[in-house]
């Protein structure tokens, strides 16, 4: 039986401030940690034995998944005590693997069909996909279904095919891992162990039909959109008279949707929330547990994590709001430049023409604040009333007029 090893030890520095209090793999997408979506998809392909390599904030992973029985699988954990690279992370599972195994990064969304395609390939195999910005990834060259070359984040990539971080290996991998040396950044890189396979012409390429990489916070919105496409309606909470639900909408137990609220699916709302009255929630929105989305709110294409409140006369579009945030009445987030060009956040091009803000945990806004496109607001910030917020705001900042 094929086992599955998932690398889930990293912090995900490019995901800050969202990873200040949680590992990257536990950031919710469509109201579930991204790692949960991955485990469920792999389980549905017939694999039920998992080894998770954990490290940064590992308690969050262990607490959520336990021994795996609640998810219909068996999970063992291996701790990577120091972040010494992906090669070192895989070496830690040496005593837990006994044959062919699926190996993948825990910070992506994959389809069941693509996982099955890799499992059906001869070992060793590597999942690849096309990218319109390959210089941001490891690039591969392929001939007749065999990987012929690999280069890491080249300014002049030799192809538009990238390493998707999904592998099928056998036990021979460990003999190659034991021979690699630290890279220029001082880490043991898993990709260095691919070179003997490439030289021997034995590394098979499997083209993936879809792939959602979670490199930066705005990538969460794309993954959220993809996952919500297949959402089915399920109402477990209370829907008052005068509420309009259009399309696929899920409402969790204990949630009350008050009169005058209009919800366009796909939209998922967690448990014990208060929605409305007279709220307008538009498609591709995920609202966590214990949230308050109140009177005269417009919310679209966004992720709102647990215990956050957007209660009075607010607009939030194309944004990621972490846990424990509170918006003062009239506070709004802009999500479109006047010139309609792609929006940058923290000096990085999001490649999105519509993008609002990334807001960390426990951020409190006063009344009538304005948040500019591409703003990144750190954890535990306090924003005084009537402030204009733009750019990157560090953790624990106090912003005044």
From TrEMBL:
Transmembrane segments: none annotated. Residues 5-226 form the Nucleotidyl transferase domain. Keywords: Acyltransferase, Multifunctional enzyme, Nucleotidyltransferase, Transferase. One of its GO terms (molecular function) is UDP-N-acetylglucosamine diphosphorylase activity. Residues 263-379 form the Mannose-1-phosphate guanyltransferase C-terminal domain. Gene3D superfamilies: Hexapeptide repeat proteins, Spore Coat Polysaccharide Biosynthesis Protein SpsA, Chain A. Its EC number is 2.3.1.157, 2.7.7.23. CDD domains: LbH_G1P_TT_C_like, NTP_transferase. It comes from the Archaea. In the C-terminal section; belongs to the transferase hexapeptide repeat family. In the N-terminal section; belongs to the N-acetylglucosamine-1-phosphate uridyltransferase family. This is Bifunctional protein GlmU. It comes from Methanospirillum lacunae.
